[in-house]
Each structure stands twice: as C-alpha cells, then as structure tokens.
Write a structure and sequence with these properties.
By secondary structure, the protein is an alpha+beta fold. It contains 29 helices and 16 strands. One of its GO terms (cellular component) is plasma membrane.
Length: 780
Amino acid sequence: MSSYPSGEGGSQLPPTPTLSNPPTNGKSSQVKGGLVPTNNVTTKEGMTVRTRIEPSLAVEDVIRQLCISLKLKDPPAVYALRDENDELVTNDNMRKKIKGKVNLKLVNAPAIEAAEIVEKLGARDAKLGLALTSLRKLIREEQFANEFLQRDGLHELIDVINTSHGNILAYALTAMQNLMELDYGWANLDNSFILKVVQILSSEQSLINVCRPATAILKKLVEADPSSASGVHAPSSSRGPPSPPPGSVYRYGFDVVFEQMRKERRLLETVVSRLGSADTTMALYSMMLINSLMAHASDPRWDEFIAELERLNVRKAVIRLMSSHTIEDLTSCILDFQANMVRVTFRKKTTLVEPDFEPLHSTALQFIWEQSKLQEEREDAMTLIKWRKLGFDTEDIGHEFREVGVLGLDCLKYFVEKDPDYWAKVVQEQLSRPEERRCPIAKASNEVTDLLSEHWAIYAPGYSTSTTFQPFFLNFYKVHSLALQFFLRMWNESGSSTGDFPRLVALTRSQVKVALKRENIRPWHEVEQEFLECEYRAVRDRQMQELEMEDDIMSKIPVRNLRAKLYKESFEFVRQQRIHCLLEGAWFMNGIPLATTVPRDTLKRPTRPWRFLRLDAGLKYLHYVDSAVKFPVRKGLEDLPERIEIAMISEVATGTCAPFPHIRGDQADLPLGSSSPLLASSLSFSLLSTSGGSLADQIAPDQARWADWTDGLNMLRRDGGHVASQETELFVQALTEIGLKIKLLDLSGEKVEIPSGLVAGPPPTNSDFFFSDLAYDPPA
C-alpha cells in the first residue's frame, strides 16, 4: 500500500477531496510508479491522504502502513478504519470498499471504543445517553461486541436497564436488542432479567419507544430454544478481536419465558391490546411476539397458553387489523397468524376428547348436559341413556368426537353458551318427536365442524396456502354456530328423517361454499343472511345444479381423506420446487424501501443496481453479489462474497419497496410496473430481521420469480411461514385435484365401489384359529 498526503508537506485538502481534483503541487494525480490511488483516508485530526490499498492485504496491515506513512505515535492496534457511514472496515468487506473507491476514516479501534463506553455506563453521568446512542449502533459489529463483552459490558448494560426509565431505558433496551442479533454473548441472562422485560411490557405507562425493543427482546428469547440451535455459526475469526465467550444462547425458549410471564398475568392482555395501537410499528412488534409464542408453545403449556389467548379474544383483535386501512406493514404478520391458527385448529381437531382423564373435557361436557335441562334415564339395568338424548349415536362420548376431537367439543360448547335457552328448547323439541323424525343435533354439530375444517383445508400443521385474509376462519366458532342453525332449519323445513342425514350434510356443505366465498372482501352480515334467511327450496335447487356438474363421489369420506393426504404431498412437492429455485439463484433489482427517510430529489441511480442471490446447499445462508451489470454467475458460491443468515430473517414482507427513480426504460431488463419510482412495486419484497430492520430489498423481474422466491423463503422458516402468492396456492390445489382424479380413474376403471364409510362386521363366533396358529409347529 502507498499513501500520499494531498499536498506537499502534508497540507490538508478541502473537506471533500476527490481523485479527479488536481494535486496542490501541480503534479499529475498519478502517484509514484504510475499507480493510481484507490481511496481517500481521513485521520482523526482532519488530514486527508490519498492511498493505494492492495486488496490482498489484511486490514491490520493497511492500518500499520498508514501509521508508518503518517508517522503516528500510537501503536496500530488502537486504530481502525470506517467508511463515511461509520461501517467498520473488515477483511470481509475491504475488497468491496476498495473497488467502490469509498472514502475512509482512521478512527479509534473497537477495543478503545468499547472501553470508553463501558466506563461511561458504569459512571451513570450526563454522558450516559450519548454512550448508549453509540452503543446501539456499534454493538451489531462482532469486533466491538467481543471487546464490549470481554469488559463485562453486558453486566453494566443490564444494570442500566434495571435502574433507568424513559428514553435512557429505551436506548439501553435497543442496545440489548441489537446485541441479541448475534448468536453469542447473551447466554447468561437470568430469570430476573426476563422478568424485568416482562414487567416493562406489562406496564401500560411504558413509552412506545420502550415497548418496541422490549417486545423484540422477549420474542428473541422465545425463539432461542435448543431446537433452534441448528445452523448457528460462530463469529468470523481474525487476528484482532478476541474469541467470543463460550456458551450457547439457545438455552431459553417458550417454557423459560412463559414461566416469567405467568408472574405478570397482565402481559398477554397488554400485548393483545397493543395490536390496536395507532403506532403501526408497535402493532407489528406485538403481532410478531404473539406469532412467535404460538409457533414455539411447548406441549406442557400449550393448552394453558392457547386458552389464555382465546380468553383475551386475540382473534377479534386481528380481525380488526384486517379491516384497518393502515396495515400494509402488517399483512405478512397477519397471514402468519392465520397459519398459526390453522395449526391450533388442527391440533384441537386431532386431540381426543377424554373426560375420564381431562378435567376440562369433563367440565365442558357437564356444562352442555346441564344446559339441556334433561334427566338421565336407564334403558335397562345395564344401559344408561344420556348422550343419545342430545343426538349422539352411542353413549361412548370419546368415540363420538373421534373425528373432530376437542375442536368439535369446543364448537358445541360455544353453540350452547351463545344461547342456552335456545339449546334447551331445541333439544327438548326433538325429543318430543317420533324417534325417526328427530334431528341428531350433537351429531350434526360434529358434521358441521368436519365440513368447515375441510372448507378451510385443516389437513395438517404447516400446510397453509392461503394468500388472503380469512376473517371468517378466525370466527370459526361463530360460523359453526350459524351453519348448525342452518342445518336444523333445513331439517325442519324439509321434514327430514333419520335416513336423510347424509343429504342434509351435503346440503349444508353446499351452503358453506356459497356463504363463505370471497371471504377477504365479503361483509359479515351477508354471511349471516346466507345461513339464516335462505329458503330450503332455493338451496336445494342450487345444490341439484351443482350435483349435475360434480360427481357425488367427491363428498364421500374416503375421497375426502384421500384429498387431504394428496394435499400434503402436493404442498411438500411445491416446497421442494421453490427451494430448488433458491438453490439455483437469480438476479433481482435492488429497491428503495418505502420507509426510507432519504428525500426524493436526492435519490440517485446506484452504481450497482443488480443483485444475484443464491441459497447455499446447507439451507443456512443466502449468498449474494451486487453488480453494475448482470453477468454469468458460476455454480457454487465463489462469485458471491456477501451473505445473509436465514435464521436472521423473521419475515418476508411483500410490496415494500420501489425502483430507484433513475433506473427507467434505458434498461431493457426492468420488471413490469416499475416506472413510478416511489410507488411500491407489486414484484418487490424485503427480508426483515428480528430487530425489524431490512436485510435486503429486492424487485423481481416477473411474477413467476417473485412467487418462487417469496414462497420459497417463507417455506424455509422454522414455523413454515405462510404462502404469499396465488401462483403457489393454485399450484398446490391443482396438483391435489389432478392427483385425486388419477387415483379415482384407477378405481373407476376397475369399477370399484367406494363406500361412504367402513363398518366393522360381526365378531367371529370363536377365536380358535388364533390359538391354532400360535400352537402350530412347522416340521423340521
């Protein structure tokens, strides 16, 4: 490396020197030997020198030669290089700085800065605010973080959090939030710290700028469970910074956090209430925390946690967000919540009703029975008549709920709670009729639960493909109540008998499809009208028209089960295809986040407007390179020096950025719809970090690539995320239907009769054949 003062005798240049400026001594701007300087470096004293830096050198060697050239008295170890944006120059990014001819600054080394900040944290004087402001920014750097932690800075930071309030507390929490973006250094946070964060969030008096980082910290602790440790990488090693402290940060998780949450019962209530905050970022952080808790809830605490969310009516709060006009930033989080609710619903549906072992099940069943105002009877000395009075086929209540599980029990309980008098009236009215004319209400309730689960594709956890808001799904119990009332009304109006039950189920299925269509835009009162006011004749006529176009075979239980199985297989196939696209890599345009604070008239065309992204084979990092022009990228990762850790991506937000204003039609390869510079492109997406900042802002060249990458990145997430594009949603559905038709063609070609259900035959008259098999001794 060579360095040359800007004028003879080391005289200062103007504040913003450039290589094109003529030297003050009148000589050529080329330096000795015909070499051209690569960067300007400004010292702490304000002197700027032109330097030629060899890309092959390490940063420590560059600083050493600068110290020698500038005859600085302090050792090189106390210095570091930063660019004009105060980004630390490291061995990883120095080549990029040299290539871009970035202006550099010779400043204090991270060790010096860390020592000064730790000292100010301990002093707690008037400079504390400034120290925390610097700490918020510097703590993201591995070299600074290592030095800060080595000097017990974390202990000082926690002391500030425990003793401060207002803006100082907000700055300290933000610094902690940024530290926790690293995968080391915070493995020794104890329960008292977690409880302190919980208490901060529980207080309604806490400022919004305090609640934001506190929410992000709690979310990070929830996600730092041992099962998330796969893919964690150690910080990059170099000769300068010391090794990071030992110990994994993946030692917390849902159970550890929830134990402290139970000590502050108002926490969840406060977080749910903040979903309605006028501050969109606060609502976003609260939504992300709820999603994280739902995705990581452990089996021992799952029932308690979900019951508390249901008590707080979190569904209603999210439905309000859906109807809000300021939810652009929340769309992805709301879809994640929907996907989490699909998992909750599926788990309830597959959880057996066991009143002999689960007190909650027993209590719910007892409530349903008591509200019916009936008395038990005995058919004979051995047989009790109780549940059959409500419309079940048998007295084995666990067996009756086998297909719909706890979900069916909850739906029936909600129906009874909604209007206990109506429930008692209907039950007693049915018992007053001849047995063959009675509507089996409880059995009908379970059938309605099952067909609603089918309508919303409650097939398995992690397989949600909805790309639009589903407010009616979040109102599952209310829709069930309306559909069950419809079933009862159709039964009465049609004068049905016991043998007509399957026909009424088919009629209700048809009405559900009509009432719940265009769910994302349809008002609730129209749904109520469809279920409560439609006439039997009109519904029946429409169903007959549907049956002319659709084979009745599709409604049979074995076919519905086959569709559920094929749906999961189709989803997994599409997931692998999307991830394969990520492994192949693709070019994107770099975009401007809509939330940017840069004035419109100052936005300039970037020197490297294109970015190539590729996922590594281990599915842990997204590697990329920025370039002025597109070029053929070789296989592997040699051409992609930068990378983003997949674990750091908390959300894939869509419609979040716009093209740069000076990248217009002069480039023939721009995406469609990108001519308006500050309007969001429909083909844009941003990778948001756990702290809410953006890791990447990209614009795809076409709809197909946008769908491949947004859905592929979502499917990589541990909780499965949600599908963002209709292309993927329709693709999964099309594959399911094609697979189903192929399977049915195989059966119909053999003229196999598909039964409506499987009925076990009578038991054998004796079991001698079992014992004869066991006693059989084959010859030697």
